[in-house]
Amino acid sequence: MHSLTLLSLAAVGHAASTMLRFGCSQIVIDRIDPLVNPGQAPSPHLHQVVGGNAFNISMPSTDIAELATCTTCNYADDFSNYWTANMYFKARNGSFKRVPQVPNRLLFGDKFTTKTTGGFVVYYVSPGKGGVTAFKPGFRMLVGDANKRAQGSKSMKSQTCFRCYSGPNFGGDNAAPCADAKLDTEAFPKGPCLGGIRSNILYPTCWDGKNLDSPDHKSHVAYPTAGPQTFTGSSVGTTCPTTHPVKIPQIMLEIVWDTTAFNNKADWPADEKPLYLSTGDNTGYGQHGDYVFGWRGDALQRAMDAGCTGASCSNLKVLTNEEAAKCKVPERVNEKWEGWLDSLPGMTPDMIQ
Predict the structure, then answer these.
(1) Which phi and psi (to 5°) does residue 233 adopt?
(2) pLDDT tens profile 76-90
(3) Cis? peptide before 42, omega within 30° of 0
(4) Measured in whole angstroms, how far is the alpha carbon of residue 159 from the centre of its chain?
């Protein structure tokens, strides 16, 4: 809840709803994917990961909170893992450089989020006590499609978007995520963004109530009957379909990319498509997010029922930046992904859009 509209919403009339907003530092950048490509090292593309230190080439379908011993997230009981593709800049000479992630803006007095190293912000939304059922140990899901390169039959902008900041210090950040008609796009922005770019990735809010995962990591969850729920910070949408009757918290990932060093169009390639996801995608439509649930005990359910806001919840312990920064996992794939590269990690020219 970072816009004026949403801040006003939080202040009046929605005291019972919960909107956790908290930062997580990067735990590793690596070319592994225990959800889509378990046991495979290297996996097809590079990811940036936050959360607990149980993250590995494979992760058993069990209680991850019992396997992890630390987390990079502000809430000490969240040992979940969240990961997305990295963003790269392609220069006119054909070389690539990773776009750095920078801390998000200060809201709700949450200084932890403004001091994270890499990483991003995670949101969990509930309409209030009894409004959602927290995820169960072993639950995992995927949103988006790494192979998508065009909009498709309908826009999914409300679920995955890029905000092109109009100036420094999060300029133009005045609307709910993915709701700004001018600054938010489903595809990569077409021109330079004076204040950098923000990614938002929103997950489905309905569950079949039975399966903790599915072969495509998507079929066990669904959107409400009226369609994907936009982000309000207080609602998870309308009625769920009968096949997926259980309402679950709305998760949203929010990543700020500092693209300002790459705004000189003289450095851009001739096709004026300088941004790439580490999947080889220069459209942005392939933005996606992976999730493995790992909250300890009933901590998430308590938070969803408690009417908490931001990174402060009376019944949840929080970490300092220094404590969270100590949590690391080793890179399992030894390859160069930082600095100027001849190609994207793991990508041959024919694999790059």
Answers:
(1) 85, 0
(2) 999 999 999 999 999
(3) yes
(4) 11
Given a contact cutoff of 8 angstroms between Cβ atoms, the answer to whether 336 and 345 are in contact is: yes
Q: Which two tokens stand for residue 239?
A: 């009625």
* DSSP label at residue 304: H
Task: Provide the domain count of the chain.
Answer: 1
| Alpha carbon distance 231, 242 (integer Å) | 23
H or E element in which residue 10 lies: helix 4-11
Contact in structure between 162 and 284 (CB atoms under 8 Å): yes
Residues in the chain with pLDDT values less than 70: 1-15, 353
Q: How many CA atoms lie within 13 A of 107 on its CB side?
A: 25
Look at residues 163, 159, 332, 133 and name the one whose alpha carbon lies nearest to residue 249: 133
For the chain, the helix, strand and coil percentages under 3-state DSSP, each to the nearest 5:
10, 25, 65
Report pLDDT digits (tens) over 44-59: 999 999 999 999 999 9
Q: pTM to 2 decimals? A: 0.95
Taking the C-alpha atoms of residue 14 and residue 176, their distance in angstroms, rounded to an integer, is 16
Provide Rg for the chain, Cα atoms: 19
The range of the structural domain enclosing residue 262 comes to 1-353
> What are the start-end ranges of the E strands in the chain?
18-24, 26-30, 47-51, 81-85, 87-90, 96-98, 120-126, 140-144, 160-164, 184-185, 197-202, 206-207, 221-222, 246-247, 250-257, 275-277, 288-292, 309-310
Cβ contact 305:14 at 8 Å: no
3-state DSSP assignment of residue 174:
coil
Q: Are strands 184-185 and 275-277 parallel, antiparallel or unpaired?
A: unpaired
**Residue 8, exposed/middle/buried by CB under 10 A (0-12, 13-18, 19+)?**
exposed
| Count of Cβ atoms closer than 10 Å to residue 268 Cβ | 18
Structure tokens at 280: 């080889």
| CA dihedral of residues 89, 93, 94, 97 (deg, nearest 10) | -30
